């Protein structure tokens, strides 16, 4: 089911001006990688409100982190475009969005083309409100199957299935136990932070050994 950005729904219902409503989403939460685990610039992870509690733990394992509540895919894409113009874009980018609005295959393709063939885009499947999978996760899985040398799957939906204690009451935002599991999941992407994989390096029959890892 298509989801509206929560703050946009609230604004429409109560007649709050967009600027005022947007303030309820909070500002950007960011952190710098504690150590560089990559060749070149530290890998970058971009998230929405689901990532807020995990910002510092993700920086501890080697990510530059940028999260903001209510963030949609288009905002994440524009953040990457700005960094690319500034020459600050890492070889590995992790996108963990989807709590707000929807993720389409064409959105993923646009971002893949922006990053170009020398970078890897890892995609985190988002849970729906209340828990479980939806069209966003399906689109991410399909895109990573179609472009296995450029897109890597971090299947948070499958990894977190059956772990109600990892989440708050909405089944979407993380508890502290969920933060630890989320960091374990995203850590799997760090092996792609070096040189990008060659086209054809992933065999058609390859299967990940872990729900939060694409085949190498």
Question: Would you mind describing this structure in some detail?
Answer:
The chain is an alpha/beta fold. It has one domain: Rossmann fold. It is built from 8 helices and 6 strands, in the order ααββαβαβαβαβαα. The protein has helices at residues 6-14, 18-23, 55-60, 73-85, 105-115, 135-146, 156-160, 176-187; strands at residues 29-31, 44-47, 64-67, 92-96, 120-124, 151-154. The protein has a 6-stranded mixed sheet. Helix 5 (105-115) links the parallel strand 4 (92-96) and strand 5 (120-124). The radius of gyration is 17 Å and the shape is globular. The chain starts with 5 loop residues before the first helix and ends in a 29-residue tail after the last helix. Mean pLDDT is 84; it is low at 6-21 and 200-207.
């Amino acid at each position: 089911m298509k989801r509206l950005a929560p703050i946009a729904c609230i604004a429409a219902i109560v007649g709050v001006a967009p600027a005022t409503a947007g303030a309820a989403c909070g500002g950007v939460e960011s952190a710098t990688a504690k150590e560089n685990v990559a060749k070149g610039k530290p890998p970058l992870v971009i998230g929405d409100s689901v990532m807020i509690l995990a910002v510092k733990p993700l920086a501890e394992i080697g990510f530059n982190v940028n999260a903001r509540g209510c963030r949609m895919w288009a905002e994440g894409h524009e953040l990457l475009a700005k960094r690319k113009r500034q020459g600050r874009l890492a070889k590995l980018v992790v996108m963990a969005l989807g709590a707000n609005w929807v993720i389409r295959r064409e959105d993923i393709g646009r971002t893949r083309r922006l990053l170009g063939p020398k970078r890897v885009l890892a995609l985190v499947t988002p849970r729906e409100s209340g828990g479980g999978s939806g069209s966003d996760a399906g689109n991410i899985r399909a895109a990573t199957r179609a472009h296995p040398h450029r897109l890597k799957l971090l299947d948070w939906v499958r990894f977190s299935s059956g772990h109600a204690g990892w989440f708050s009451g909405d089944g979407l935002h993380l508890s502290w136990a969920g933060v630890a599991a989320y960091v374990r999941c995203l850590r799997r992407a760090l092996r792609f932070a070096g040189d990008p994989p060659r086209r054809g390096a992933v065999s058609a029959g390859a299967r990940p050994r872990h729900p939060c890892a694409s085949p190498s």
